[in-house]
Design goal:
Structural class: mainly beta
Shape: globular
Oligomer: single chain
Number of strands: 10
Strand content: over 45%
Distance between the termini: 35 Å
Length: 164
Amino acid sequence: MKYVVTCLVLLLIIWAPGHALESDKDQPMHLEADSLSVDEASGVVLYEGSVEITQGSLRIWADRLWIHRRQGKTEKVISEGSPVRFRQLTEKGDEEVHGEARRVEINAERDELLLIDDASLEQGGNRFRNDRIIYNRAKAMVKAGTSAQGKQRVQVVIEPNKQP
């Protein structure tokens, strides 16, 4: 029975309605911060102090942000804050996904956000809370708890379908 309940919970957690806005990844990224440090040798750029990122409908707010680049391509973006917050429109256009955590890592190649420590994610009225949440923006997939190498039990609130 415990296995069945676990599978049902994982199915609910993995499904999230609506993909992130596809056109966002093709938009230029705009960054603002109080300071900037560039280490050309390592390919790491550090932004500090009230960092704001905009890329299409994607918005990120953080205290510090590192961009790791290799051979002219962004590999990953790591941000820290109290908390780091983000929001992005979905392909539905009128729906938004938003979340926060103390640390957010973006893997550009996989189009995934890894939310670490006090992580929460909300989309379509459904809310996920855990110490680690993986959100794949392209596939609109969410993983939390042990499936995301978390140590805490997953907390989920699923809103009922609204009938017209």
